[in-house]
Description:
Elements: H1 5-24, H2 31-42, H3 47-57, H4 61-70, E1 82-87, H5 90-94, H6 97-108, E2 121-126, E3 138-140, E4 143-145, H7 153-158
Parallel strand pairs: 1-2
Antiparallel strand pairs: 1-3, 3-4
Keywords: 2Fe-2S, Iron, Iron-sulfur, Metal-binding, Oxidoreductase
Protein name: NADP-reducing hydrogenase subunit HndA
InterPro entries: NADP_DH_HndA-like (IPR028431), NuoE-like (IPR002023), NuoE_dom (IPR042128), NuoE_N (IPR041921), Thioredoxin-like_sf (IPR036249)
Amino acid sequence: MAVNKKASCEDEKYQRLDEYIAEHKGRAGALIPVLQRAQEIFGYLPLEVQKHVAEGLGVPLSEVYGVVTFYSFFNLEPKGKYQISSCLGTACYVRGAAKVLDRIKKELGIEVGETSKDAKFSLQATRCVGACGLAPVIIINDDVYGRLTEDKVPEILKKYE
């Protein structure tokens, strides 16, 4: 009989999550750290994982969902290998950030909040990344690119192919 590797990998993830839930169950404020660990393990928080956390901690699913949807650092959808944050703060915006963002969307064929079909890129718009002197700025994972024009976008994205 063949072993379903995907199922065993999922089982291992749930086992790791269960161990963490057991360590935190009954503690005040346990929900957010448990959700953070669940997201580390699964990469995002699909409904099945939210239900598992709710059952494990003995809290209503509505409470779990409320926390997941309130905090921007929780993801309901899988994210790409490369997370692109395009700054739309005032300094970036007046220096052409909208054109840079439009070029990124065109090159990747995705909108803000989406992940490319190959799961390589996720795109988000942010209000300020604190690098106003380099405006306009994008951040790809931990790499910062400043003083951008829309023409520089294809060359930058090519580095991540």
